[in-house]
Design goal:
It is built from four helices and 17 strands. By secondary structure, it is mainly beta. It folds into two domains: 122 residues, Beta Barrel (OB fold (Dihydrolipoamide Acetyltransferase, E2P)); 176 residues, Lipocalin. A nine-stranded mixed barrel has the order 7-8-9-10-11-12-15-16-17. It has a five-stranded mixed barrel with strand order 1-2-3-5-4. A two-stranded antiparallel sheet has the order 13-14. It is globular and about 65 Å long. The two termini are 24 Å apart.
Length: 335
């Protein structure tokens, strides 16, 4: 059975690849049998056999959140069992010949629902989120001015590129995304990136843990810190931070390895890259504005800048779960 309804897609459903292929104004609702439940990062997938609108039996591939995102909504590795009968609702691929769906929820035989990206109980009391007065705590990306459809898109159109970078940009393909091979994305891309961040600090440093990615940064307050001086070149670089005021943090980063798509989607970076970040904590401690400026003479004729924001979230511990290459590329099986 297929039912068409109208919903709005959750802003939290952003991922490492574009979601523009899904029709976020239409949902399909299918009852069928669980064939596969792949509890892996960066996205959990499941296959369900059920009839399409014509009554023909189809195998539907459903894409859900990361393991961390689903755990926060009550899922675990045993939430679905092979052979179990369930009903799912989600946003279908715009190409009707592809039985590929961005999952909204699974409804089990007892009537209970598991939501993939949103909180399903509207009557549930909202948890108390604690404000931050020193940047520490858990933060989530503010999607207000974030283009979901372009999440896996090409290079920024307002940046100025060298001839080498323009050649790369002309050959851009979403299927060349290094994240599909579970490769590090590094700085600056992870500065304004979906999923949450945990900030902790002491007298000597700020440590930033990124949910869903095993790329954890240390920002040192002392230029002579051993951790800063002795760090070999890396995708994250070596970061020095200082405060323009109590609520304005500036971070200067250099010491990079050449990185595939290390400046932006479709634009590699060199060991000449430097990045300057600005973080402005709001007076109420519930949000912070973010911007970064990247300079790389091999790829950019002028420095490129991006801006974004984070919102304070419920403080929680993150689990580091290894990215699985098959899960990272599974969406390509239907594209």
């Amino acid at each position: 059975m297929l039912v068409v309804l109208v919903f709005s897609i959750s802003s939290n459903s952003l991922a490492h690849h574009s979601r523009a292929n899904f029709d976020n104004e239409t949902t399909v609702q299918i009852t069928g049998t669980v064939l596969d439940y792949a509890w892996r990062n960066p996205h959990v997938y499941m296959e369900i056999e059920g009839d399409d609108a014509t009554g023909a039996s189809r195998t539907w591939l459903l894409e859900a959140h990361s393991i961390t995102g689903l755990r926060g909504r009550g899922w675990d590795g045993d939430s679905l069992l092979e052979g179990e009968m369930v009903t799912f609702s989600g946003y279908p691929d715009r190409n009707p010949s592809k039985y590929f769906v961005l999952l909204d929820y699974i409804q089990k035989a007892d009537g209970s629902r598991l939501y993939a990206f949103r909180d399903g109980n509207a009557e549930q009391e909202e948890p108390l989120i604690t404000a931050s007065d020193d940047f520490t705590g858990t933060w989530t990306l503010d999607f207000t001015n974030y283009n979901l459809g372009a999440a896996g898109g090409g290079p920024p159109t307002d940046w100025s590129y060298t001839d080498k970078a323009r050649v790369e940009a002309e050959d851009f393909s979403v299927n060349d995304n290094p994240e599909l091979n579970c490769l590090a994305i590094g700085v600056p891309k992870l500065v304004i990136y979906p999923y949450g961040t945990n900030w902790t600090r002491d007298e000597n440093s700020i440590r930033i843990q990124k949910e869903h990615l095993n790329e954890n940064r240390v920002i040192w307050f002392d230029r002579d810190a051993l951790g800063l001086q002795n760090q070999p070149p890396s995708y994250l670089g070596s970061s020095y931070g200082y405060f323009e005021s109590e609520r304005h943090l500036v971070v200067e980063t250099s010491g990079f390895l050449p990185t595939i798509w290390g400046n932006a989607n479709g634009v590699d970076s060199s060991d000449q890259k430097t990045v300057v970040e600005h973080y402005l904590l709001s007076d109420d401690g519930m949000s912070m504005e973010v911007s970064y400026t990247v300079t790389d003479l091999r790829y950019l004729t002028e420095s490129g800048t991006k801006t974004g924001a984070y919102l304070k979230a419920l403080d929680r511990e993150f689990e580091e779960i290894v990215c699985d290459p098959r899960a990272a590329t599974r969406h390509l099986s239907v594209e």
